[in-house]
């Protein structure tokens, strides 16, 4: 009985050969040096920020080399599948500025000639390659039951041996084709395993584009290639897909590094040229003194949805991720403050090998910078869109007072150092709510912040006088000179030295008077330029606020 008969018995419907597929997936016609990368998630629903991080690395590597970035869905573990996850992945990546050149475009649609791009639709292809391996004696049916596997594992663990199906434990590895066929005909359940040609004494070496030179002992495990449900394992499927789809660079999470001996062996056994590998370090965070992986369970910021809810503009998140992909990004950004981030060349060999440290404080700083450089109208559009979804009260106000809100977002925008007020949209309300009478008029006396050296009584005396002296329609310089004059009349001084020498000779400094006006107008001691905010609020409201302050 030949292996061919065994293969035909296992796969009676497979009539094609690997060569047919290899021919059907022609070489890509790309410029020299162009990289083909993929994002290959399992559609499990949860979008981890680490996934966006890894996708961004892959996307940049492909795009900056004039190559192709495609989306492949790895859904061979159908228990874990979640409906809508593909659409969600595509939308998320798009939202972070990444679009796929090829691959899935929706739950059931795709583009490109290297498909299908969903592994569950490629079962025939995997079976064709598996059948060929059986014929060549490089794969075999294994009839071990779940109980037998369990027993084997326990025995190995108790003897402190590496668990798994290898060497003497791979009891069906050397079954004759005849015996195997008999078992199959009798209806004995089985799976297919690789007949590993590995030798534990030898090492396999490779260069990882991020981690550098690495070596591992060769794989000796007879890994499963086709499961009982007829679908392939990740190991087997990805090797065939990456080969047929002409992936040049497998950029993926470092959790796969330890499986690399299996993967390179599969490529070798299948007769495929090995791709380049780039194992992307995990996104880490500081937990007290120590670094640990960003955890889905413990860290809300591990979920992509967190950034949307908090209101981080996608540009800020991308900008921040580039910062942790390459530490040289910060310097590049300083030298190129207005250049599109796509111009920054990502270098894999300059990535941190031990893990990118994710830090929300730093993200917020980067984001403040990004928002400060946005034109006011863009800030208005993005903020309004966020508020519509997450802050109904603010949405109502900013749309009702649209012109004023646009002016607020425009404060100190021009010039080389625009104000850096907000890192995320959820911070905006607290910083701007006093502009709106709807908020301001209900603030109570306890909420009023007074300048350090000014009592409520003094502040009221200042406002009572200032109310009479105040001219709305003047330029900033005249306005300030008038304020200064009044301050001096009230016994305050503009002369810092004189004040320092004999503080008891004055009520205070001019700045205390300006501070009292600021308080009456905003109830706060820290606001943007006073003249500007009074002009945004408008004369009528300014005068009303003076009166209200006197009645507090
Ligand atoms: N489907 C694998 C995962 O979700 C992809 C690994 C890879 O990119 O090759 O982890």
Task: Write a concise keyword list for the protein shown above.
Rossmann fold; 4 domains; four-stranded mixed beta sheet; three-stranded antiparallel beta sheet; elongated; binds glutamic acid
Detailed description of the structure:
- With 552 residues, the chain is an alpha/beta fold.
- The protein folds into four domains: 2-15 and 123-280, HUPs (Rossmann fold), CATH 3.40.50; 285-372, Glutamyl-trna Synthetase, Domain 2 (Glutamyl-tRNA Synthetase, domain 2, Orthogonal Bundle); 374-430; 443-552, Arc Repressor Mutant, subunit A (Orthogonal Bundle), CATH 1.10.10.
- It is built from 24 helices and 16 strands.
- The chain has helices spanning 3-10, 18-24, 49-64, 85-95, 123-135, 146-158, 177-185, 234-244, 260-269, 304-310, 314-325, 329-335, 360-373, 376-390, 392-400, 402-409, 428-432, 437-440, 456-469, 476-489, 496-501, 510-522, 530-537, 539-550; strands at residues 36-39, 68-71, 102-104, 110-111, 139-142, 191-194, 203-208, 212-217, 224-226, 249-253, 276-280, 283-287, 290-293, 356-357, 492-493, 508-509.
- The strands form six sheets. The protein has a four-stranded mixed β-sheet, covered by helices on one side.
- Helix 14 crosses helix 16 (402-409) and helix 19 runs antiparallel to helix 24.
- It is elongated and about 110 Å long.
- The protein starts with a helix and ends with a helix.
- Bound molecules: glutamic acid (GLU).
Secondary structure: elements and pairs:
Blueprint: H1 3-10, H2 18-24, E1 36-39, H3 49-64, E2 68-71, H4 85-95, E3 102-104, E4 110-111, H5 123-135, E5 139-142, H6 146-158, H7 177-185, E6 191-194, E7 203-208, E8 212-217, E9 224-226, H8 234-244, E10 249-253, H9 260-269, E11 276-280, E12 283-287, E13 290-293, H10 304-310, H11 314-325, H12 329-335, E14 356-357, H13 360-373, H14 376-390, H15 392-400, H16 402-409, H17 428-432, H18 437-440, H19 456-469, H20 476-489, E15 492-493, H21 496-501, E16 508-509, H22 510-522, H23 530-537, H24 539-550
Parallel strand pairs: 1-2, 2-3, 10-11, 12-14, 15-16
Antiparallel strand pairs: 3-4, 5-6, 6-9, 7-8, 12-13
Helix pairs in contact: 1-5, 1-7, 8-9, 11-13, 14-15, 14-16, 19-20, 19-22, 19-24
